Predict the structure.
Amino acid sequence: MITTTEKLAALQSAMKSQNIHAWIIPSSDPHESEYAADHWNGRAWLSGFDGSAGTVVVLQDQAALWTDGRYFLQGEEQLAGTGIELMKQGQPDVPPINKWVTDNLDEGQIVGFDGKVMSLKFVRNLKQSFDSKNLSLKTDLDLLNDVWKDRPALPTEPVFLHNDAMAGKTREEKLTEVRAEMTAAGAEHVLVTALDDIAWLFNLRGSDVECNPVFLAYAHITNDSAQLFVDDSRIEKEALEALKASSVELSAYSAIADSLSSLNNAALLIDPATTCQWLYDAIPDSVDVVEATSPARNLKAIKNPVEINRMGDCHRRDGVAIVRFMRWLEGQIPTGNLTEVTLDENLQAFRAQAPEFKGPSFPTIAGYAPNGAVIHYRAEEETCLTVQPKGLLLVDSGGQYPDGTTDITRTFACGEMTEEERKDYTLVLKCHINLARARFLRGTRGIQLDMLARQPAWAEGQNYNHGTGHGVGYFLNVHEGPHSVSQGFLDVPLKPGMLITNEPGMYRNGKHGIRIENIMLVEEDIKTVFGEFYKLKDLTLAPIDTRPLLLDRLNGEEIEWLNNYHSKVRSELSPLLEGEDLEWLIKTTEAI
């Protein structure tokens, strides 16, 4: 098998032959997806680092990889001995990519990357620094093709219908809403590039990307037409008939650039965060480019009443699977035979008992003891730990269903625990409750709620190195924007109908990791003379392990919240369980 060192050498040789002095490989595809089809997983192939976020920069004599706090431990482990330096984004003395490249290149040298996988927004950020040294860009090559000899082909999985009754709106209604936003922005055309936006807009789903029910496509919308760029041989008959009934014009996936280049004297709306440099370069100079967040992205984030109602069914169904898994897990841990991989396999089997289950919404994170501190850990058969009857086990998982996407984390007591483990666990629950109980004014941004969630941890001089929450799709991507709850400022107010996760954590390298996560719905709360206030409603239904808690560290309001949450879980799930599963649920959700 070819090593990372050999792959680097081959790429550097290709760079020299093209007179390119720096080559950048992001994690994205031509749609700026968080998770990409295997064809575009060049960063993972080259470096061996397979976290979902990271960018490799290769110079002719060195290489470095940037990733965020979720992956620092994983990055250290997977990059060890590769010759690729780990750059911990956001840490003191760690330069951003553009500065590092600029500092390491000479005046007038060339920076290259595949323009199909670099967003316009990212490229502009690079150029701000590059101009100081007159560095030029080469964007019309894909050097990976020269060195990645067994590169996977583009996916060609079937595209199927997500029926209107499940979606809550017809594609005609959604197109009307997108056109209204387009017109309000002063545009006559809109280019839709994000795969989940396209799947939502046309009430279609696919399986081109692991765990994400999307398919490779572009869309071009005008006031009187809707053009979908996808190979129609992939579209199932029922979906094809529905598209034709809606007068959606179908074109080949590969025809998008030529189609854009034929525009003339028009106003085209694009989203610079999800439109790649390659497509931007195809737009004629006569076109007035309007830059804004994709209308579909904003509309999709606010779930409609049908989606909200059906998500209740989805989370009850998922909660039943989690309860059955938790009872099974409790019986397996004392045997000393349970591994991180086998518990994941069994968790998926419990979810698969529901005929509606379509697969996981992301690869399960099952980390026992020190592996729990690796925030996006993925257990492998050869290296996974066996769960012992002591310490803590973190399990973060989710499911895809036609009526929703789930994402839940629970941390379990496996037996005897240290005082530190119990203190950290109690602190994480306090953070979780602080956000869950929030009442906040209309117009509140996620960064404000992030501070609220962290307050109990900060009061103890502790912190966690990831966001507190993210949006969630509806039978779509488990991570969905434009909003989030994190320390990064996004000028996106939280609105009723949005979903956010509530997932504070605590991680001690070499010891343990703790996270407690629910999906929550933003709802209207009260109106006063001071304004409109919103609240958060738990959708996730599963017990929270009370065994690690130090009850004397919880105040009366926190205990009341936990008892009320468990009462809700018991009430919602009891009618769907029987026998030992029901008995276990009743016992586990007793008031403390």
